[in-house]
Specification:
Largest sheet: 2 strands, antiparallel
Helix content: 40-55%
Distance between the termini: 25 Å
Number of strands: 2
Order of helices and strands: HHHHEHHEH
Shape: globular
Structural class: mainly alpha
Number of helices: 7
Radius of gyration: 16 Å
């Protein structure tokens, strides 16, 4: 059941993330991006939790931060995921990165951060709490800027799926980008 949920959220995220790319210069992005981000992050969280349950990792206490979940998985599995990620990282997939700001201070729109060339650890740290940030962004009276790399996050999810398919563990939840 966990895998089916993770797959469903990944499929929804992919559809919505492609709409973000299409609407990048439109105000419609504000209604599309939160759905894409929340679904993408939740899918990644569920796939990481599957690894926790499969390997019976101790310390599970309803952790939701992607970087914390990833940090505790076995090094051997991390290396396999990272190898798959490296093989796939140049795929375009019709997905983009975004920086969306709603705040009073426009100077925060400009930064030198390159979120298109991140390691898995950097990616998961950047997006660790995006699920919550996008669900409750309205609670920040001063506003905020949130960056999100849909392409690398989907490649991360594909990498987990590929590793477990190669082990014969999943063999069913195939989430593909056509």
């Amino acid at each position: 059941m966990l895998l089916h949920s993770a797959k469903g959220f990944a499929e929804t995220a992919l559809l919505e993330a492609r709409k973000v790319t299409e609407e990048i210069d439109s105000t419609a992005i504000w209604s599309i991006a939160p759905k894409a981000i929340v679904n993408m992050n939740f899918s990644a969280e569920l796939f990481l939790k599957f690894i926790w349950f499969h390997y019976e990792i101790e310390g599970y206490s309803r952790i939701h931060f992607l970087d914390a979940l990833y940090e505790k998985i076995p090094d051997k599995i991390k290396l396999e995921i990272e190898s798959e990620f490296s093989k796939r990282r140049n795929q375009k997939l019709g997905l983009t990165s975004v920086k969306l700001c709603f705040e009073n201070d426009p100077k925060n729109m400009n930064d030198d951060k390159d979120i298109d060339n991140l390691s898995i650890e950097e990616l998961l740290k950047l997006h660790s709490n995006s699920f919550v940030e996008w669900r409750y962004h309205f609670e920040k009276p001063q506003g905020c800027c949130i960056e999100y790399n849909f392409r690398l996050m989907f490649i991360f999810i594909q990498s987990i799926i590929s590793v477990f398919n190669s082990k014969g563990i999943l063999n069913e939840p195939k989430v593909k980008a056509p």
